[in-house]
Amino acid sequence: MIDFTEAQLDRYSRHILLKDVGIEGQERLLSAKVLIIGAGGLGAPVALYLAAAGVGTLGIADGDNVDLSNLQRQIIHFTKDISRAKVVSAAEKIRALNPDVKVNAIQEHVFADTIRDIIRGYDFVIDGTDNFAAKFLINDACVMEDIPFSHGGIVRFTGQTMTIVPGQSACYRCVFTAPPPKNAVPTCSQAGVLGAVAGMLGTIQAAEALKFITKTGTLLTDRLLTFDALTMDFRKVTLHKQSHCAVCGENPTISALVDEEQAVCDFKNSKGLHATH
């Protein structure tokens, strides 16, 4: 049992009032550990909402620095942060928002030889990356480490997301078996992205993490949620766990992680596996 201070009872009062969350749910949040991979368009709103909610430990992994072009959508970074490491900028805002939150700033890109060590020990992972190589790497690593995670992707006016609980639901590779050929799908630096779309999708990912931690509601497992902000049409596609999946199937053929070459959103950071939206 956490002995809440008067300030904490006031800070989290709107959670505590919810019968599906309450004191017990807030205790779970304060004891939880969530890793956000990518402190960009998706990771920014996720980090702010999870910090505000009182998630006790937030890990942020990103090897990039803040660029002027980021500020149109990456709302955790300000003009004064240009050229600073994204994880340093994000950690500063999180600590200012909620001193209850411990921040693990991981200033590096995720690669096959490091990702399992990075994600290990976290209760939930947020994929805030902007390239297929990173998304498949995160999926495979989380399946191998048995860590639930939220997938998210945006481009132009559209977004998509799904939640994966290893061993229970379809994984990302069950749906998209392998990365598309390089340059087959445009990145956001090629096609553009409406800034608010990042906020829409990232907020949904944050809600999924909070629901998972507090054990309330129905997760986006075995469902792919897509939306088009131009028309405000939302659609859910039913998914199925595939017995022949190469990573989570009955006889998996992927036993080791690999780094695949993939174009990224920010050409100036094209060596990184997880350039962010």
What is the residue-mean pLDDT, rounded to a whole number?
A: 93
Low-confidence stretches: 264-274
Q: What's the level 1 CATH class?
A: Alpha Beta
In CATH, what is the homologous superfamily?
A: NAD(P)-binding Rossmann-like Domain
**Approximate shape:** globular
Give the radius of gyration.
18 Å
User: Count of DSSP helices?
Assistant: 10
Order of helices and strands: HHHEHEHEHEHEEHHHEE
State the total count of DSSP E strands.
Answer: 8
Word description of this protein:
With 277 residues, this protein is of the alpha/beta class. The chain has one domain (32-269): Rossmann fold. It is built from ten helices and eight strands. It has helices at residues 6-11, 13-16, 22-31, 43-53, 86-97, 115-119, 132-145, 172-175, 188-191, 195-214, and strands spanning 33-37, 57-61, 102-106, 124-127, 149-155, 158-164, 223-228, 233-238. Strands 3-2-1-4-5-6-7-8 form an eight-stranded mixed beta sheet, sandwiched between helices. β5 (149-155) and β6 form a beta hairpin.
Task: Give short descriptive properties of this protein.
277 residues; single chain; 16% strand; alpha/beta; 32% helix
Fold topology:
Elements: H1 6-11, H2 13-16, H3 22-31, E1 33-37, H4 43-53, E2 57-61, H5 86-97, E3 102-106, H6 115-119, E4 124-127, H7 132-145, E5 149-155, E6 158-164, H8 172-175, H9 188-191, H10 195-214, E7 223-228, E8 233-238
Parallel strand pairs: 1-2, 1-4, 2-3, 4-5
Antiparallel strand pairs: 5-6, 6-7, 7-8
